[in-house]
Amino acid sequence: MGAADIAYGLYERRIKASLDLDRIPRHVGVILDGNRRWAADQGSTSAQGHRAGARKIEDLLGWCEEVDVKLVTLWLLSTDNLSRSPSEIAQLLTIIEQTVTDLAATGRWRINPMGALDLLPANTSRVLKEAADATSEVDGLMVNVAVGYGGRREVVDAVRSLLIEHSARGTSLDDLAALLDVEHIAEHLYTRGQPDPDLVIRTSGEQRLSGFLLWQSAHSEFWFAEAHWPDFRKVDFLRALRSYGARQRRYGA
Description:
By secondary structure, the protein is of the alpha/beta class. The protein has a single domain (about 30-245), classed as 3-Layer(aba) Sandwich (Undecaprenyl pyrophosphate synthetase). Helix content is about 50%, strand content about 15%. The chain contains nine helices and six strands. It has a six-stranded parallel sheet with strand order 3-4-2-1-5-6, sandwiched between helices. α2 crosses α3 (about 45-65) and α3 packs parallel to α4 (about 85-105). The longest helix has 21 residues, at about 45-65. The radius of gyration is 19 Å and the shape is globular.
């Protein structure tokens, strides 16, 4: 082990020791950004960048387990990404399918696919549902796998689901308009029944959410890392937790 590795290990332990364990976020959302830029910097292909990013996911989930995070939402593919070239999308979906299958095979985490699964190829949807079924009884960290996900699409889907439900009950539009509130929408989101994210992390230096958990992140804290996702380190994650723990959450006030 070189001097740099020793110094890194000491710094990592120092940050972890400084964490307020009473202020660990229950739900962490992560925008895994920068795979293609990382690949370009390495002189590699986009597919190689996506594979490198996929390998980092299991590390992240292990780090979350160590500090007792209860729920993680990973944004793997947006609805906008589906407009990329067919060859790139085919490669990316294959990587996502293998990644989700591998995560499920560990038996450590409960996989919960979320997104517009009807927009995905049948095989991808099948793989995601099989991973969810295989891990439904796992008593561990829940992992929302956001594939074919868009925040605006989620809200539209929630409203559509709400309207269909009340139409089946015979509720008139006037009656629905009179009773509709925030909780009615929340009950039809992809994350229904789950706590909203306390902390949202985005890698690759981009300081925007791009519609990630658009409804749920209204009161979230944000942390932006300069590193591209494949280069995201445990020390970066711990720094995000330390920053979160030092903040006074105001919930919009």
